[in-house]
Design a protein that fits this description.
It is a single chain. By secondary structure, the protein is an alpha/beta fold. It has helices at residues 26-33, 44-48, 128-138, 154-164, 198-207, 222-234, 249-259, 287-290, 294-310, 407-421, 429-448; strands spanning 2-4, 38-39, 63-66, 72-75, 83-85, 94-95, 119-124, 144-150, 171-172, 188-191, 211-214, 239-241, 266-276, 316-322, 336-342, 348-354, 356-367, 370-375, 384-391, 394-400, 452-453. The strands form 4 sheets. Strands 20-19-18-17-13-16-15-14-21 form a 9-stranded mixed beta sheet. α5 (198-207) links the parallel β10 (188-191) and β11. It starts with a strand and ends in a 20-residue tail after the last strand. The structure holds nicotinamide-adenine-dinucleotide (NAD). The site of nicotinamide-adenine-dinucleotide has 19 residues, from α3.
Protein backbone atom coordinates (compact mmCIF):
# COMPACT_ATOMS: atom_id res chain seq x y z
CA UNK A 1 0.00 0.00 0.00
CA UNK A 2 1.20 3.49 -0.70
CA UNK A 3 -0.08 6.67 0.86
CA UNK A 4 -1.10 9.61 -1.26
CA UNK A 5 -0.04 12.80 0.39
CA UNK A 6 1.70 14.95 -2.08
CA UNK A 7 2.37 17.61 0.54
CA UNK A 8 4.70 15.54 2.71
CA UNK A 9 7.89 16.58 0.93
CA UNK A 10 7.02 20.20 1.38
CA UNK A 11 6.36 20.18 5.15
CA UNK A 12 8.99 21.94 7.20
CA UNK A 13 7.65 23.15 10.54
CA UNK A 14 6.15 21.27 13.44
CA UNK A 15 3.01 22.46 15.21
CA UNK A 16 4.13 23.40 18.68
CA UNK A 17 0.95 22.24 20.42
CA UNK A 18 0.42 18.90 18.68
CA UNK A 19 3.90 18.06 17.46
CA UNK A 20 2.28 17.47 14.04
CA UNK A 21 4.16 18.45 10.95
CA UNK A 22 1.46 20.60 9.40
CA UNK A 23 3.07 23.54 7.69
CA UNK A 24 5.21 23.57 4.59
CA UNK A 25 8.23 25.24 3.08
CA UNK A 26 7.74 27.79 0.37
CA UNK A 27 9.38 25.33 -2.07
CA UNK A 28 7.00 22.55 -1.07
CA UNK A 29 4.01 24.79 -1.30
CA UNK A 30 4.97 25.94 -4.80
CA UNK A 31 5.46 22.30 -5.85
CA UNK A 32 2.02 21.44 -4.55
CA UNK A 33 0.46 24.43 -6.21
CA UNK A 34 1.79 23.19 -9.54
CA UNK A 35 1.21 25.39 -12.49
CA UNK A 36 -1.42 27.54 -10.79
CA UNK A 37 -0.21 31.03 -10.10
CA UNK A 38 -1.44 31.32 -6.57
CA UNK A 39 -0.61 34.37 -4.54
CA UNK A 40 -0.99 33.82 -0.84
CA UNK A 41 -3.04 36.70 0.36
CA UNK A 42 -3.99 35.52 3.77
CA UNK A 43 -5.14 32.67 5.90
CA UNK A 44 -1.67 31.11 6.18
CA UNK A 45 -1.07 31.85 9.79
CA UNK A 46 -4.65 31.03 10.80
CA UNK A 47 -4.55 27.75 8.92
CA UNK A 48 -1.29 26.69 10.50
CA UNK A 49 -2.40 27.28 14.04
CA UNK A 50 -3.58 24.36 16.06
CA UNK A 51 -6.91 24.69 17.86
CA UNK A 52 -5.65 22.29 20.51
CA UNK A 53 -8.04 19.53 19.35
CA UNK A 54 -5.80 17.99 16.73
CA UNK A 55 -3.86 19.03 13.68
CA UNK A 56 -5.10 21.99 11.72
CA UNK A 57 -5.38 21.92 7.94
CA UNK A 58 -1.77 21.51 6.83
CA UNK A 59 -1.79 24.10 4.06
CA UNK A 60 -2.91 27.69 3.74
CA UNK A 61 -6.67 27.79 3.19
CA UNK A 62 -6.89 30.94 1.12
CA UNK A 63 -4.94 32.45 -1.72
CA UNK A 64 -5.47 34.59 -4.78
CA UNK A 65 -5.46 33.58 -8.43
CA UNK A 66 -4.46 36.25 -10.90
CA UNK A 67 -6.25 35.71 -14.22
CA UNK A 68 -4.52 36.63 -17.53
CA UNK A 69 -6.93 39.61 -17.68
CA UNK A 70 -5.28 40.96 -14.53
CA UNK A 71 -8.33 40.24 -12.35
CA UNK A 72 -7.73 38.54 -9.01
CA UNK A 73 -10.10 35.90 -7.62
CA UNK A 74 -9.89 34.22 -4.22
CA UNK A 75 -8.86 30.55 -4.30
CA UNK A 76 -7.17 27.87 -2.19
CA UNK A 77 -3.87 26.19 -2.84
CA UNK A 78 -4.18 22.60 -4.12
CA UNK A 79 -3.81 19.86 -1.56
CA UNK A 80 -4.37 16.09 -1.65
CA UNK A 81 -5.73 14.76 1.64
CA UNK A 82 -4.36 11.38 2.73
CA UNK A 83 -5.77 8.46 0.71
CA UNK A 84 -4.96 4.76 0.67
CA UNK A 85 -4.23 3.45 -2.81
CA UNK A 86 -4.00 -0.35 -2.59
CA UNK A 87 -1.44 -2.06 -4.78
CA UNK A 88 -4.17 -4.56 -5.77
CA UNK A 89 -6.17 -2.96 -8.58
CA UNK A 90 -9.31 -4.88 -7.55
CA UNK A 91 -9.41 -3.03 -4.20
CA UNK A 92 -10.95 0.45 -4.02
CA UNK A 93 -9.07 3.63 -3.15
CA UNK A 94 -9.86 4.72 0.42
CA UNK A 95 -10.31 8.43 0.83
CA UNK A 96 -9.90 10.46 4.01
CA UNK A 97 -13.09 10.00 6.06
CA UNK A 98 -15.09 13.03 7.16
CA UNK A 99 -18.58 11.81 8.09
CA UNK A 100 -19.61 10.73 11.55
CA UNK A 101 -21.18 7.32 12.16
CA UNK A 102 -24.41 9.13 12.97
CA UNK A 103 -25.01 9.03 9.22
CA UNK A 104 -25.18 6.08 6.85
CA UNK A 105 -21.75 4.77 5.94
CA UNK A 106 -20.84 5.55 2.33
CA UNK A 107 -20.21 2.50 0.17
CA UNK A 108 -16.63 2.01 -1.08
CA UNK A 109 -15.68 4.28 -3.98
CA UNK A 110 -16.43 2.66 -7.35
CA UNK A 111 -13.52 0.54 -8.46
CA UNK A 112 -13.69 0.03 -12.22
CA UNK A 113 -11.20 -2.26 -13.89
CA UNK A 114 -9.26 -0.80 -16.81
CA UNK A 115 -11.15 -1.41 -20.07
CA UNK A 116 -8.67 -4.00 -21.35
CA UNK A 117 -9.22 -6.15 -18.25
CA UNK A 118 -13.03 -6.20 -18.42
CA UNK A 119 -15.24 -8.92 -19.84
CA UNK A 120 -16.54 -8.03 -23.32
CA UNK A 121 -20.29 -8.46 -23.96
CA UNK A 122 -22.11 -8.93 -27.26
CA UNK A 123 -25.61 -7.49 -26.87
CA UNK A 124 -28.10 -9.41 -29.02
CA UNK A 125 -31.30 -7.53 -29.94
CA UNK A 126 -31.45 -3.75 -29.74
CA UNK A 127 -34.93 -3.21 -28.32
CA UNK A 128 -36.25 -1.45 -25.24
CA UNK A 129 -34.31 -3.33 -22.61
CA UNK A 130 -30.97 -3.12 -24.45
CA UNK A 131 -31.24 0.56 -25.37
CA UNK A 132 -32.96 1.84 -22.25
CA UNK A 133 -31.23 -0.19 -19.55
CA UNK A 134 -28.44 -2.57 -20.52
CA UNK A 135 -26.23 -0.38 -22.71
CA UNK A 136 -26.49 2.63 -20.35
CA UNK A 137 -25.75 0.29 -17.41
CA UNK A 138 -22.62 -1.01 -19.12
CA UNK A 139 -21.31 2.54 -18.85
CA UNK A 140 -21.40 2.21 -15.07
CA UNK A 141 -20.08 -1.36 -14.95
CA UNK A 142 -16.72 -2.04 -13.34
CA UNK A 143 -15.91 -5.43 -14.81
CA UNK A 144 -17.98 -5.51 -18.00
CA UNK A 145 -17.94 -3.58 -21.27
CA UNK A 146 -19.82 -3.65 -24.54
CA UNK A 147 -17.69 -5.32 -27.23
CA UNK A 148 -20.19 -6.22 -29.98
CA UNK A 149 -23.77 -5.76 -31.14
CA UNK A 150 -26.19 -8.06 -32.97
CA UNK A 151 -29.25 -6.65 -34.71
CA UNK A 152 -31.47 -7.08 -37.76
CA UNK A 153 -31.50 -3.32 -38.33
CA UNK A 154 -28.17 -2.06 -39.78
CA UNK A 155 -29.29 1.56 -39.45
CA UNK A 156 -30.15 1.28 -35.75
CA UNK A 157 -27.04 -0.78 -35.05
CA UNK A 158 -24.77 1.79 -36.77
CA UNK A 159 -26.15 4.56 -34.58
CA UNK A 160 -25.89 2.53 -31.38
CA UNK A 161 -22.34 1.45 -32.30
CA UNK A 162 -21.38 5.13 -32.72
CA UNK A 163 -22.98 6.05 -29.42
CA UNK A 164 -21.28 3.30 -27.41
CA UNK A 165 -17.97 3.08 -29.28
CA UNK A 166 -18.46 -0.37 -30.85
CA UNK A 167 -16.25 -1.03 -33.89
CA UNK A 168 -18.08 -1.58 -37.23
CA UNK A 169 -16.37 -4.98 -37.55
CA UNK A 170 -17.93 -5.98 -34.19
CA UNK A 171 -21.50 -5.42 -35.47
CA UNK A 172 -23.30 -8.58 -36.58
CA UNK A 173 -26.63 -9.49 -38.15
CA UNK A 174 -28.61 -12.58 -37.09
CA UNK A 175 -27.18 -14.30 -40.20
CA UNK A 176 -23.56 -13.52 -39.26
CA UNK A 177 -24.16 -14.13 -35.50
CA UNK A 178 -22.08 -17.33 -35.46
CA UNK A 179 -19.03 -15.33 -36.57
CA UNK A 180 -18.86 -14.04 -32.99
CA UNK A 181 -16.73 -17.13 -32.40
CA UNK A 182 -13.88 -15.37 -34.25
CA UNK A 183 -14.10 -12.24 -32.09
CA UNK A 184 -11.73 -12.63 -29.14
CA UNK A 185 -12.97 -9.37 -27.59
CA UNK A 186 -16.33 -11.05 -26.83
CA UNK A 187 -16.43 -13.44 -23.86
CA UNK A 188 -20.16 -13.19 -23.03
CA UNK A 189 -23.24 -13.09 -25.25
CA UNK A 190 -26.25 -11.37 -23.62
CA UNK A 191 -29.50 -12.57 -25.24
CA UNK A 192 -32.11 -9.77 -25.15
CA UNK A 193 -34.53 -11.11 -27.75
CA UNK A 194 -38.21 -12.15 -27.71
CA UNK A 195 -38.64 -15.23 -25.52
CA UNK A 196 -39.13 -17.64 -28.44
CA UNK A 197 -35.58 -16.85 -29.67
CA UNK A 198 -33.75 -17.41 -26.37
CA UNK A 199 -33.16 -21.13 -26.96
CA UNK A 200 -31.76 -20.85 -30.49
CA UNK A 201 -29.43 -17.93 -29.76
CA UNK A 202 -28.22 -19.44 -26.49
CA UNK A 203 -27.40 -22.74 -28.19
CA UNK A 204 -25.70 -21.05 -31.17
CA UNK A 205 -23.83 -18.70 -28.81
CA UNK A 206 -22.50 -21.59 -26.70
CA UNK A 207 -21.45 -23.38 -29.86
CA UNK A 208 -19.55 -20.21 -30.80
CA UNK A 209 -17.56 -20.73 -27.59
CA UNK A 210 -19.06 -17.87 -25.56
CA UNK A 211 -20.55 -17.80 -22.06
CA UNK A 212 -24.24 -16.88 -22.08
CA UNK A 213 -26.33 -14.42 -20.08
CA UNK A 214 -29.94 -14.93 -21.18
CA UNK A 215 -32.90 -12.72 -20.34
CA UNK A 216 -35.89 -14.06 -18.43
CA UNK A 217 -38.07 -15.98 -18.99
CA UNK A 218 -35.42 -18.51 -19.95
CA UNK A 219 -37.56 -19.83 -22.86
CA UNK A 220 -41.12 -20.82 -23.78
CA UNK A 221 -41.05 -24.44 -22.60
CA UNK A 222 -39.15 -26.65 -20.19
CA UNK A 223 -37.95 -28.74 -23.17
CA UNK A 224 -36.30 -25.60 -24.64
CA UNK A 225 -34.75 -24.79 -21.24
CA UNK A 226 -33.31 -28.30 -21.00
CA UNK A 227 -31.86 -28.03 -24.52
CA UNK A 228 -30.16 -24.74 -23.55
CA UNK A 229 -28.67 -26.29 -20.40
CA UNK A 230 -27.46 -29.33 -22.33
CA UNK A 231 -25.90 -27.23 -25.11
CA UNK A 232 -23.99 -25.01 -22.64
CA UNK A 233 -22.78 -28.05 -20.70
CA UNK A 234 -21.66 -29.76 -23.90
CA UNK A 235 -19.76 -26.67 -25.03
CA UNK A 236 -18.37 -26.21 -21.48
CA UNK A 237 -19.79 -22.69 -21.32
CA UNK A 238 -21.44 -20.88 -18.43
CA UNK A 239 -25.16 -20.12 -18.57
CA UNK A 240 -26.79 -17.51 -16.36
CA UNK A 241 -30.42 -16.38 -16.48
CA UNK A 242 -30.78 -12.63 -15.95
CA UNK A 243 -32.70 -12.65 -12.66
CA UNK A 244 -31.62 -9.13 -11.67
CA UNK A 245 -33.61 -9.35 -8.40
CA UNK A 246 -31.00 -11.83 -7.10
CA UNK A 247 -28.47 -8.96 -7.16
CA UNK A 248 -30.77 -6.14 -5.97
CA UNK A 249 -29.99 -5.01 -2.40
CA UNK A 250 -33.54 -4.60 -0.99
CA UNK A 251 -34.68 -8.04 -2.12
CA UNK A 252 -31.45 -9.53 -0.83
CA UNK A 253 -31.99 -7.85 2.52
CA UNK A 254 -35.49 -9.36 2.81
CA UNK A 255 -34.12 -12.79 1.88
CA UNK A 256 -31.38 -12.47 4.51
CA UNK A 257 -33.87 -11.53 7.26
CA UNK A 258 -36.31 -14.27 6.27
CA UNK A 259 -33.57 -16.89 6.12
CA UNK A 260 -32.45 -15.79 9.61
CA UNK A 261 -36.08 -15.94 10.92
CA UNK A 262 -35.57 -12.44 12.33
CA UNK A 263 -39.26 -12.06 13.20
CA UNK A 264 -40.01 -15.78 13.42
CA UNK A 265 -40.80 -18.18 10.62
CA UNK A 266 -42.31 -16.96 7.35
CA UNK A 267 -45.92 -18.07 6.94
CA UNK A 268 -47.60 -16.20 4.10
CA UNK A 269 -46.49 -14.22 1.03
CA UNK A 270 -48.68 -11.83 -0.93
CA UNK A 271 -47.10 -10.69 -4.20
CA UNK A 272 -48.22 -8.94 -7.36
CA UNK A 273 -46.60 -7.49 -10.46
CA UNK A 274 -48.89 -5.58 -12.78
CA UNK A 275 -48.57 -3.14 -15.68
CA UNK A 276 -50.48 -1.97 -18.71
CA UNK A 277 -49.80 -2.69 -22.39
CA UNK A 278 -51.34 -1.29 -25.55
CA UNK A 279 -49.87 -2.73 -28.75
CA UNK A 280 -51.50 -5.97 -29.97
CA UNK A 281 -48.85 -6.31 -32.71
CA UNK A 282 -45.98 -6.42 -30.21
CA UNK A 283 -44.36 -9.84 -29.74
CA UNK A 284 -45.50 -9.84 -26.08
CA UNK A 285 -49.07 -10.34 -27.35
CA UNK A 286 -48.22 -13.13 -29.81
CA UNK A 287 -48.22 -16.50 -28.07
CA UNK A 288 -45.66 -18.15 -30.37
CA UNK A 289 -43.15 -15.42 -29.53
CA UNK A 290 -43.95 -14.70 -25.87
CA UNK A 291 -45.03 -18.14 -24.65
CA UNK A 292 -47.87 -16.54 -22.65
CA UNK A 293 -49.03 -13.15 -21.43
CA UNK A 294 -48.57 -11.45 -18.10
CA UNK A 295 -47.35 -14.63 -16.35
CA UNK A 296 -44.03 -15.34 -18.12
CA UNK A 297 -43.27 -11.65 -18.67
CA UNK A 298 -43.93 -10.05 -15.27
CA UNK A 299 -45.74 -12.60 -13.09
CA UNK A 300 -42.48 -14.56 -13.24
CA UNK A 301 -40.99 -11.98 -10.84
CA UNK A 302 -43.53 -12.92 -8.13
CA UNK A 303 -42.78 -16.59 -8.71
CA UNK A 304 -39.00 -16.36 -8.83
CA UNK A 305 -38.59 -13.78 -6.07
CA UNK A 306 -40.84 -15.74 -3.69
CA UNK A 307 -38.75 -18.87 -4.33
CA UNK A 308 -35.56 -16.81 -3.90
CA UNK A 309 -36.62 -15.28 -0.59
CA UNK A 310 -37.96 -18.50 0.92
CA UNK A 311 -35.28 -20.80 -0.53
CA UNK A 312 -38.03 -23.45 -0.85
CA UNK A 313 -39.75 -25.02 -3.86
CA UNK A 314 -43.55 -25.23 -4.18
CA UNK A 315 -45.20 -28.65 -4.04
CA UNK A 316 -48.59 -27.55 -5.36
CA UNK A 317 -50.07 -24.71 -7.43
CA UNK A 318 -53.61 -23.59 -7.97
CA UNK A 319 -54.35 -20.94 -10.60
CA UNK A 320 -56.91 -18.82 -12.38
CA UNK A 321 -56.36 -17.14 -15.75
CA UNK A 322 -58.63 -14.65 -17.50
CA UNK A 323 -58.66 -12.51 -20.66
CA UNK A 324 -61.32 -9.99 -21.65
CA UNK A 325 -62.77 -11.59 -24.83
CA UNK A 326 -63.56 -8.13 -26.26
CA UNK A 327 -59.98 -6.86 -25.96
CA UNK A 328 -57.79 -7.51 -29.06
CA UNK A 329 -54.65 -7.31 -26.87
CA UNK A 330 -55.55 -10.61 -25.23
CA UNK A 331 -56.66 -12.73 -28.19
CA UNK A 332 -53.62 -15.00 -27.79
CA UNK A 333 -52.14 -14.36 -24.35
CA UNK A 334 -53.66 -13.98 -20.90
CA UNK A 335 -54.55 -10.62 -19.42
CA UNK A 336 -54.45 -11.69 -15.79
CA UNK A 337 -53.19 -14.68 -13.86
CA UNK A 338 -53.71 -15.27 -10.18
CA UNK A 339 -52.21 -18.28 -8.43
CA UNK A 340 -51.37 -19.79 -5.07
CA UNK A 341 -48.35 -21.89 -4.20
CA UNK A 342 -47.97 -24.27 -1.28
CA UNK A 343 -44.45 -24.84 0.08
CA UNK A 344 -43.13 -27.85 2.05
CA UNK A 345 -42.82 -25.87 5.32
CA UNK A 346 -46.50 -24.92 5.10
CA UNK A 347 -46.00 -21.40 3.69
CA UNK A 348 -48.70 -20.28 1.25
CA UNK A 349 -47.92 -17.66 -1.40
CA UNK A 350 -50.69 -15.73 -3.08
CA UNK A 351 -49.51 -14.20 -6.37
CA UNK A 352 -51.10 -12.18 -9.16
CA UNK A 353 -50.07 -10.51 -12.38
CA UNK A 354 -52.02 -8.27 -14.75
CA UNK A 355 -51.33 -6.73 -18.16
CA UNK A 356 -54.18 -4.23 -18.08
CA UNK A 357 -53.91 -2.14 -14.90
CA UNK A 358 -51.73 0.74 -13.76
CA UNK A 359 -48.20 -0.18 -12.55
CA UNK A 360 -48.26 -2.06 -9.20
CA UNK A 361 -45.28 -4.14 -8.07
CA UNK A 362 -45.20 -5.17 -4.47
CA UNK A 363 -44.98 -8.01 -1.97
CA UNK A 364 -45.42 -8.58 1.71
CA UNK A 365 -43.80 -11.51 3.50
CA UNK A 366 -45.70 -12.22 6.72
CA UNK A 367 -43.88 -14.01 9.50
CA UNK A 368 -44.89 -15.23 12.98
CA UNK A 369 -43.92 -11.95 14.64
CA UNK A 370 -43.70 -9.32 11.93
CA UNK A 371 -43.75 -8.54 8.23
CA UNK A 372 -41.57 -7.12 5.44
CA UNK A 373 -43.24 -5.15 2.69
CA UNK A 374 -41.37 -4.08 -0.43
CA UNK A 375 -42.99 -1.46 -2.64
CA UNK A 376 -41.76 -1.39 -6.28
CA UNK A 377 -40.25 -4.74 -5.44
CA UNK A 378 -39.61 -5.74 -9.06
CA UNK A 379 -39.11 -2.28 -10.59
CA UNK A 380 -35.76 -1.01 -11.89
CA UNK A 381 -35.73 1.71 -9.20
CA UNK A 382 -37.82 3.13 -6.37
CA UNK A 383 -37.81 0.25 -3.86
CA UNK A 384 -39.32 1.18 -0.50
CA UNK A 385 -39.03 -1.32 2.31
CA UNK A 386 -41.17 -1.24 5.42
CA UNK A 387 -41.09 -3.70 8.31
CA UNK A 388 -43.48 -4.12 11.22
CA UNK A 389 -43.32 -5.89 14.56
CA UNK A 390 -44.80 -5.60 18.05
CA UNK A 391 -42.59 -4.10 20.76
CA UNK A 392 -44.44 -4.39 24.09
CA UNK A 393 -47.42 -2.12 23.98
CA UNK A 394 -46.44 -0.46 20.73
CA UNK A 395 -46.08 -1.59 17.12
CA UNK A 396 -42.80 -0.61 15.56
CA UNK A 397 -42.93 0.08 11.83
CA UNK A 398 -39.66 1.00 10.21
CA UNK A 399 -38.60 2.20 6.79
CA UNK A 400 -35.37 0.49 5.79
CA UNK A 401 -33.30 2.59 3.43
CA UNK A 402 -30.52 0.93 1.44
CA UNK A 403 -28.28 2.60 -1.14
CA UNK A 404 -29.76 1.43 -4.44
CA UNK A 405 -27.63 -0.14 -7.17
CA UNK A 406 -28.03 -0.18 -10.92
CA UNK A 407 -29.50 -3.67 -11.08
CA UNK A 408 -28.30 -4.40 -14.61
CA UNK A 409 -24.74 -3.26 -13.89
CA UNK A 410 -24.68 -5.35 -10.70
CA UNK A 411 -25.96 -8.42 -12.54
CA UNK A 412 -23.50 -8.10 -15.45
CA UNK A 413 -20.53 -7.41 -13.17
CA UNK A 414 -21.51 -10.43 -11.06
CA UNK A 415 -21.53 -12.65 -14.17
CA UNK A 416 -18.24 -11.12 -15.38
CA UNK A 417 -16.75 -12.02 -12.03
CA UNK A 418 -17.95 -15.63 -12.47
CA UNK A 419 -16.25 -15.71 -15.88
CA UNK A 420 -13.03 -14.16 -14.53
CA UNK A 421 -12.89 -16.46 -11.49
CA UNK A 422 -14.25 -19.49 -13.38
CA UNK A 423 -17.09 -19.74 -10.83
CA UNK A 424 -20.55 -21.23 -11.46
CA UNK A 425 -23.22 -18.49 -11.49
CA UNK A 426 -25.93 -18.23 -8.83
CA UNK A 427 -28.84 -17.76 -11.28
CA UNK A 428 -28.39 -21.00 -13.19
CA UNK A 429 -30.16 -22.47 -16.21
CA UNK A 430 -31.66 -25.02 -13.80
CA UNK A 431 -33.23 -22.10 -11.88
CA UNK A 432 -34.83 -20.86 -15.12
CA UNK A 433 -35.99 -24.38 -15.94
CA UNK A 434 -37.64 -24.75 -12.50
CA UNK A 435 -39.59 -21.50 -13.04
CA UNK A 436 -40.67 -22.78 -16.43
CA UNK A 437 -41.90 -26.07 -14.93
CA UNK A 438 -43.90 -24.19 -12.29
CA UNK A 439 -45.40 -21.84 -14.92
CA UNK A 440 -46.44 -24.88 -16.94
CA UNK A 441 -48.14 -26.27 -13.81
CA UNK A 442 -49.86 -22.88 -13.24
CA UNK A 443 -51.30 -22.91 -16.78
CA UNK A 444 -52.32 -26.56 -16.36
CA UNK A 445 -54.10 -25.76 -13.10
CA UNK A 446 -56.01 -22.88 -14.72
CA UNK A 447 -56.89 -24.99 -17.74
CA UNK A 448 -58.01 -28.02 -15.75
CA UNK A 449 -59.54 -25.95 -12.91
CA UNK A 450 -57.78 -27.98 -10.20
CA UNK A 451 -54.64 -27.82 -8.06
CA UNK A 452 -51.55 -29.34 -9.70
CA UNK A 453 -48.89 -31.11 -7.66
CA UNK A 454 -45.16 -30.63 -8.16
CA UNK A 455 -42.37 -32.96 -7.05
CA UNK A 456 -41.23 -32.48 -3.44
CA UNK A 457 -37.77 -30.89 -3.36
CA UNK A 458 -36.40 -30.86 0.17
CA UNK A 459 -33.03 -29.30 -0.51
CA UNK A 460 -32.85 -25.53 0.13
CA UNK A 461 -31.90 -23.32 -2.84
CA UNK A 462 -31.93 -26.51 -4.86
CA UNK A 463 -31.50 -24.96 -8.29
CA UNK A 464 -29.15 -22.06 -7.51
CA UNK A 465 -25.40 -22.00 -7.80
CA UNK A 466 -22.95 -20.98 -5.07
CA UNK A 467 -23.96 -17.81 -3.21
CA UNK A 468 -22.31 -14.64 -4.51
CA UNK A 469 -19.39 -13.82 -2.16
CA UNK A 470 -21.14 -10.86 -0.51
CA UNK A 471 -24.47 -12.70 -0.01
CA UNK A 472 -24.92 -13.77 3.63
CA UNK A 473 -28.11 -15.83 3.58
P1 LIG B 1 -38.28 -5.35 -27.37
O1 LIG B 1 -39.40 -5.76 -28.26
O2 LIG B 1 -38.19 -3.94 -26.98
O3 LIG B 1 -36.90 -5.75 -28.07
C1 LIG B 1 -36.70 -6.99 -28.68
C2 LIG B 1 -35.71 -6.81 -29.78
O4 LIG B 1 -35.44 -8.08 -30.35
C3 LIG B 1 -36.24 -5.98 -30.96
O5 LIG B 1 -36.01 -4.61 -30.84
C4 LIG B 1 -35.45 -6.52 -32.11
O6 LIG B 1 -34.24 -5.80 -32.14
C5 LIG B 1 -35.12 -7.93 -31.71
N1 LIG B 1 -35.85 -8.94 -32.51
C6 LIG B 1 -35.28 -9.90 -33.24
N2 LIG B 1 -36.19 -10.68 -33.80
C7 LIG B 1 -37.39 -10.22 -33.41
C8 LIG B 1 -38.71 -10.62 -33.68
N3 LIG B 1 -38.98 -11.71 -34.41
N4 LIG B 1 -39.71 -9.89 -33.14
C9 LIG B 1 -39.45 -8.83 -32.36
N5 LIG B 1 -38.19 -8.41 -32.06
C10 LIG B 1 -37.18 -9.10 -32.59
O7 LIG B 1 -38.31 -6.31 -26.11
P2 LIG B 1 -37.58 -6.07 -24.72
O8 LIG B 1 -38.52 -5.43 -23.80
O9 LIG B 1 -36.26 -5.45 -24.95
O10 LIG B 1 -37.43 -7.60 -24.22
C11 LIG B 1 -36.39 -8.44 -24.68
C12 LIG B 1 -36.18 -9.57 -23.68
O11 LIG B 1 -35.79 -9.02 -22.44
C13 LIG B 1 -37.41 -10.41 -23.37
O12 LIG B 1 -37.04 -11.74 -23.16
C14 LIG B 1 -37.95 -9.82 -22.08
O13 LIG B 1 -38.67 -10.76 -21.31
C15 LIG B 1 -36.68 -9.44 -21.39
N6 LIG B 1 -36.86 -8.30 -20.47
C16 LIG B 1 -36.30 -8.38 -19.24
C17 LIG B 1 -36.41 -7.32 -18.36
C18 LIG B 1 -35.71 -7.37 -17.03
O14 LIG B 1 -35.98 -6.53 -16.19
N7 LIG B 1 -34.80 -8.29 -16.82
C19 LIG B 1 -37.15 -6.19 -18.71
C20 LIG B 1 -37.70 -6.12 -19.98
C21 LIG B 1 -37.54 -7.20 -20.86
Amino acid sequence: MSSLNEMNDGRSEQDSATGQDNTMSRKGFLQAAGVMAVGIAGGLSAACQSNGRGPSYPVPTTGTYKAPSGQSVPTSPPYSPPAEVPGDITKPIELEAWKSDADRKSPPVPNPLPADQRIGYAIVGLGHLSLEEILPALNSCKKSKVAALVSGSPEKMKRVAQQYGVKPESCYSYATYDKLKDNPEVQVIYIVLPNSMHAEYTIRGAQAGKDILCEKPMANSSAECQAMIDACKKANRKLMIAYRIHYEPFNRYVREKIQANEYGKPKFVDAFNCQSSANPKHWRHIKALAGGGALPDIGLYCLNTTRFILGEEPTEVSAYVYSDPENPLFKEVEEVCSWQMRFPSGIIANCATHYNVHDSRKYRVMTERGWYELENAYAYTGQKLMTSRADGEIVRQENVSITPKDQFAAEMDYFSDCVMQDRAPYSTGEEGLQDQRIMEAIYQSAREKRPVKLPLIEKKDAFRGPKPPEMQA
